[in-house]
Design brief:
disordered N terminus; six-stranded antiparallel beta sheet; mainly beta; Jelly Rolls; 15 strands; about 50% strand; about 180 residues; 1 helix
């Protein structure tokens, strides 16, 4: 494959692009909720029922993340894209919810850097609302001892269920957390 530049010269280096990307992406991992988490009118840290994904097509690349009580530790320094898939169900009229991402750079104080959230108005019916919202954030991991991430779930209605499942066949519908190292810091 070649790319034509404006002066009609071709660039054949595009064929080297996959190799260049492969040398940079040395880690990819994914965790999921293994059982649903219900949050009502509050926020709640996601500290339990987390496991590496087992869905068909997933393959761990590299060492992988470690997780203890919802605190995720990076396996090596570098720039990481941290992705969150908020998969939820709710029946309440006010259907706002989020899964928030927190990062620390000193292994102590965590800061909220973003959220994967939605606010859906009531359609007047009593049926469930289902949804999935994805967001991702770039984190510069300069120290594997000090830079870590954690997540919480926040809901302003009577019952938001953050979907989880213990079955690998239903893994695709669970709330998930993805970690991809994209380059050196």
């Amino acid at each position: 494959m070649a790319i034509i530049k404006p002066n009609n010269n071709t660039i054949s280096a595009i064929t080297a692009l996959p190799a260049a990307i492969k040398t940079q992406i040395t880690e990819h991992d994914e965790f999921r909720l293994t059982s649903s988490k219900t949050v009502s009118n509050t926020l709640s840290d996601i500290t339990a029922n987390l496991a590496r994904t087992t869905r068909s097509g997933f393959s761990l690349l590299g060492t992988g993340m470690t997780q203890s009580s919802g605190i995720f530790t990076f396996p090596s320094t570098g720039y990481y894209i941290v992705g969150v898939l908020n998969s939820y169900t709710t029946t309440d009229a006010n259907r706002a919810n989020s899964v928030r991402v927190f990062v620390t750079t000193n292994n102590s104080t965590y800061y909220n850097i973003g959220a994967s959230g939605v606010n859906t108005s009531d359609d007047g019916g009593s049926s469930n609302s289902f949804g999935a919202i994805y967001s991702e954030y770039l984190i510069d991991v300069t120290s594997t001892s000090n830079v870590k991430v954690k997540f919480d779930a926040i809901s302003n209605n009577n019952a938001t269920v953050y979907n989880g499942d213990s079955s690998s066949t239903n893994d695709g519908s669970s709330t998930r957390f993805m970690f991809t190292r994209i380059g050196d810091t």
